[in-house]
Amino acid sequence: LWRFGYSARLLKTNHFRTAASNTSFPAVCMLLAQYSGRIPGLFVVVKKNTFSTMPETVEDKTNPELYSPHPGVRGMTLLDREAFKRTVVVPALKVKKEIVSRVMKSLKPSVLQRPGLKRVVEDPEDEDSRLVILDPHKIPEFSLGELEQEALKQLSVHPEVSRYNLELSYENFKSEEILRAVLPEGQEVTSGFSRVGHIAHLNLREHQLPYRHLIGQVIIDKNPGITCVVNKTNIIDSTYRNFEMEVLAGENNLVTKVKENNITYELDFSKVYWNPRLSTEHGRIVELLKPGDVLFDVFAGIGPFAVPAAKKKCRVFANDLNPESYNWLLHNCKLNKVDTKVKAFNMDGRDFLRGPVREELSKELPLLKEEQKTSFHIVMNLPALAVEFLDVFRHLLIGEPCSTAGLPTVHCYGFSKHHNPAQDIQERAEASLGTSLDGRCSTYQVRNVAPNKEMLCITFQIPADVLYKRPCP
């Protein structure tokens, strides 16, 4: 009886329990009819209307998989949108059209809220009425609860719930629902991606590769503005920080435009490194800079540190070994009208530190006065290798140390799989520098790259005894 949604007050009636204990189902229905007028809130509908927009072959019961495509799509590798069509039976309430909005407001928690699906449809049997589609998960047994019934009573609406055959198609399902229905049961579903302008970048797992072209097309269909989907096919090359990729769906156009922290960049995603997940970190470092500061960007890429620093009126020296990154760096400096404030280089990181950086520091640091507030920052964003470059700072300069305030501040990035990542990156930095950084550094966790793999930034001022080599008397 609970399954049919009858009132709990009736089931608690001792007389009814005694009468129904050994009675057949038809007889129980008669008892219900007998008691319906004597127990408040109980009503019995002997016959319910079914409103249908499909042939009467649909099974007349609630389909709990309202948000699942047709089961026949399992294993599909070539997208067939027509195969996702299905019809499910959902509860509907007949309402006079002039009070539909009031009913919708009163029953808001129980009304179907599925994006893309109509919540109010025509009544095929009465042009003066409408059918309000209810959420089958909120009305699982086609019977309204006491609160809903009381709300309808205030509006003089009969609380009888009918069954409506709701047609669902490919357009009505979300990307993760489609992929969960297609991929083998129990397998992980990937619907997330990195967006780089019009490009969606995936990192598919081995079991997802047979479905990669379908996955790509689904992402294009469900994400306006995405016109190309790519999958990384190898790990990032540590020399030029790019990777091979396969176009899964859409146009084969990998030159794109992105906007980060209100600054526009253009790039060829197949030839340079760009990670939209680093937007917050780029902003964090630039926020530390003041107008007039000097920034040395050792692994500059296309300019996500260099360009905003230059727009902040800092003097910038930016370098990248990858010729493509260097060219796009120049392009983005011009695009953002800071090309006169950025000196760009296409060199190995060590050569950049031993050349332009040493030359500039040798010239600027001796001229610093205590009251001057210019700061020097060195950003080293090559997490796979940057810590190994720190040994370049050993005796990089010759002469008497400048004031402590003028010593350059280094922001060096690294990956760690250690159980204590901060300790790990500090110890590795100390090994490269040949000195302790206890009490002289801070570490910041940038992001989780993979399970048990963190990306961190260690920040410190280069100790004077590391940076300077005193001349012999």
Q: Can you characterise this structure?
A:
With 473 residues, this protein is of the alpha/beta class. It contains 13 helices and 20 strands. It folds into 3 domains: 86-168, Alpha-Beta Plaits, CATH 3.30.70; 175-253, Met-10+ protein-like domains (GMP Synthetase, Chain A, domain 3, 2-Layer Sandwich); 273-469, 3-Layer(aba) Sandwich (Rossmann fold). It has helices at 8-11, 14-20, 25-35, 100-106, 146-154, 175-182, 212-222, 279-288, 306-311, 323-335, 349-364, 421-433, 464-467, and strands at residues 50-51, 86-96, 120-122, 129-133, 161-168, 194-196, 199-202, 228-232, 245-250, 255-260, 263-268, 294-297, 315-319, 342-345, 376-380, 397-398, 409-416, 441-450, 453-461, 468-469. Strands 14-13-12-15-17-19-18 form a 7-stranded mixed β-sheet, with helices on both faces. The chain has a 5-stranded mixed β-sheet with strand order 1-5-2-4-3, with helices on one face. Mean pLDDT is 84; it is low at 1-64.
Number of DSSP helices?
13
Q: What is the assigned CATH homologous superfamily of the largest domain?
A: Vaccinia Virus protein VP39
Mind describing the biggest β-sheet? 7 strands, mixed
Distance between the termini: 102 Å
Which CATH architecture of the largest domain?
3-Layer(aba) Sandwich
Gyration radius over CA: 34 Å
Q: Low-confidence stretches at least 5 residues in length (pLDDT < 50)?
A: 1-64
Name the average pLDDT.
84
Task: Output the CATH class name of the largest domain.
Answer: Alpha Beta
Total strand count, please?
20
Class from helix and strand fractions: alpha/beta
Which overall shape is indicated by the principal axes computed on the Cα atoms? elongated
Question: What fold name goes in the CATH topology slot of the largest domain?
Answer: Rossmann fold
In which range does the helix fraction lie?
A: 25-40%
Number of domains: 3
- Work out the strand percent: 15-25%
Strand order of the largest sheet: 14-13-12-15-17-19-18
Domain SAM-dependent methyltransferase TRM5/TYW2-type: 193-464
Catalytic activity: guanosine(37) in tRNA + S-adenosyl-L-methionine = N(1)-methylguanosine(37) in tRNA + S-adenosyl-L-homocysteine + H(+)
GO molecular function: tRNA (guanine(37)-N1)-methyltransferase activity
Protein name: TRM5 methyltransferase
